[in-house]
Design brief:
Elements (H helix, E strand, L loop, with lengths): L5 H17 L11 H8 L10 H15 L18 H13 L10 H18 L6 E5 L2 H18 L5 H4 L8 E5 L4 H9 L7 E4 L9 H8 L6 E6 L11 H11 L2 E5 L12 H5 L9 E5 L11 E5 L2 H8 L29 H35 L4 E3 L7 E6 L3 H14 L5 E5 L2 E7 L7 H18 L2
Parallel strand pairs: 2-3, 2-4, 4-5, 5-6
Antiparallel strand pairs: 1-7, 6-7, 8-9, 9-11, 10-11
Cofactor: pyridoxal 5'-phosphate
Keywords: Decarboxylase, Lyase, Pyridoxal phosphate
InterPro entries: Aromatic_deC (IPR010977), PyrdxlP-dep_de-COase (IPR002129), PyrdxlP-dep_Trfase (IPR015424), PyrdxlP-dep_Trfase_major (IPR015421), PyrdxlP-dep_Trfase_small (IPR015422)
Length: 464
């Protein structure tokens, strides 16, 4: 008996395994130009269509040259994890089941799996178990969700229902953020109608940490509803704002404290006391945003929004319609906690990965990658003319070559073209820098050593 899925899925499976098996040795960056990819992919849409097998083969054939190996163990660009085998397998099942995970009645399995995964995350992070949890596309939408809850919460306290009455005529909200806050905070404020001009910036120190004394001084000048955005894990240095001092200042002022912990929140899962100490005081906040597709190493896309007040969280997100069959009991409708209506069951790979790793495995994942980052920094710093620009406290390494912007940028491009590893450039305190983000479960000590050797090879070729 011929089944429509069997041959095509077997073909896709074979292509997937070819890709995965080639990851450890392939050129990490993409090599094809836009014109070359257009030549392969652009064609008039045919009236009769094409054989599905040919379409799958065509796409798979372009991957080695047209896609960066983001899940390579030597991909250090941005903060991108590589999917663990169990999370990838679970994600394949998610696509196969094709569940619209918006409400419980459509998929009780997904609703319960995400409920449990949320409980596990709150436990790992040491956050209040009564907090609301929503699985979103990434930390951008996690920040939107949390700040929407914050907007609702601070206005509710002064008698304004922003969901019903909007922002026109509402009391003005003070928004405070570090000079080093991530751009997703700005974007979230734009989406929420607060705008970016409302942000009052707090000075940061040489490592990129918000100065709590400057925050206290600013809060003393503010009246009315106030939201403070702190950071766990600077995108360049990995540094943490001093959260306990910030939390105490916010609580004393009555401000809502939101923590953007896209990757840094995972320091709470570490077994290393020094790493855990970086995030001391995180529980004092009112909301937290993080990514699972970064350090938990599940497939894209998956972010997590967590809010201490379930009432504020739900009020900011929930929606209802006569045709929907929404629970009135303890069952969990995802639509109450996230901006999405129709949505992928993205919490299922989180459930699978956490269950497979356990508490100790999650800690090893974090701690091993921190150790790889430190070893890469040490290997680069031993070379004349190479300088590490900030303390390596987590998984981020900032490198500068020859104390020269142009030379540093040329080294970055040279490494990308050489292909052993891939990393990006950035600007830190007015200086060009190479940014190395060590986030992939598969990165070994050998991968780190090979990458350091490749970087230094390019540097030695380019230095004066």
């Amino acid at each position: 008996m011929t089944r429509p899925y069997d041959a095509l899925l077997a073909r896709a499976h074979a292509h997937a395994l070819d890709y995965l098996h080639a990851l450890p040795d392939r050129h990490v960056g993409a090599t094809a130009t836009r014109d070359e990819l257009l030549a392969a992919l652009r064609t008039p849409l045919s009236p009769q269509g094409e054989a599905p097998e040919a379409v799958i083969d065509l796409l798979a054939a372009q991957v080695p040259r047209g896609a960066s190996a983001c899940n390579s163990p030597r991909y250090f660009g941005f903060v991108i994890g590589g999917a663990t085998p169990v999370s990838l397998a679970a994600d394949w099942l998610v696509s196969t089941w094709d569940q619209n995970a918006g409400i419980y009645v459509i998929s009780p399995l997904v609703a319960v799996a995400e409920e449990v995964a949320g409980e596990w995350l709150l436990d790992l992070f040491g956050l209040p178990q009564e907090s609301g949890v929503g699985f979103v596309t990434g930390c951008q939408m996690a920040n939107v969700t949390c700040l929407a809850a914050a907007r609702h919460g601070v206005l509710r306290r002064v008698g304004w229902d922003v969901e019903a009455d909007g922002l026109q005529g509402a009391p003005r909200i003070n928004v405070v953020a570090s000079a080093e806050s991530h751009i997703t905070i700005d974007v979230a404020l734009r989406y929420l109608g607060l705008g970016t001009k409302c942000i009052q910036r707090v000075e940061s120190d040489a490592q990129g940490r918000m100065r709590p004394d400057a925050l206290r001084a600013l809060l003393a000048t503010l009246d009315g509803p106030t939201i403070v955005c702190a950071q766990a894990g600077n995108v360049n240095t990995g540094a943490f704002d001093p959260l306990r001092e910030i939390g105490a200042a916010c609580n004393a002022h009555g401000a809502w404290l939101h923590i953007d912990g896209a990757f840094g929140l995972w320091a709470r899962a570490s077994a290393d006391p020094a790493t855990r100490a970086l995030i001391d005081g995180v529980e004092l906040a009112d909301s937290w945003a993080t990514d699972a597709h970064k350090w938990l190493n599940v497939p894209y896309d998956c972010g997590v929004a967590m809010v201490k007040s379930r009432d504020d969280h739900r009020a900011a997100m929930t929606s209802a319609a006569a045709y929907l069959i929404q629970t009135q009991g303890v069952e969990r409708d995802a639509v109450d906690w996230v901006p999405d209506f129709s949505r992928r069951a993205r919490g299922v790979p989180v459930y699978a990965n956490l269950r497979a790793l356990g508490r100790d495995g999650t800690a090893r994942l974090i701690d091993d990658l921190c150790a790889r980052a430190r070893r890469m920094a040490d290997g680069l710093a031993s070379e004349p003319g190479v300088r590490i620009l900030a303390d390596v406290v987590l998984n981020q390494v900032l490198v500068r070559f020859g104390e020269d912007d142009d030379l540093t940028r040329r080294v970055v491009v040279g490494v990308q073209e050489e292909g052993t590893c891939w990393l990006g450039g950035t600007s830190w305190q007015g200086k060009a820098a190479m940014r190395i983000s060590v986030s992939n479960w598969a990165t070994t000590e050998d991968d780190a050593a090979r990458s350091v050797a490749a970087i230094l090879k390019v540097w030695r070729q380019l230095r004066p």
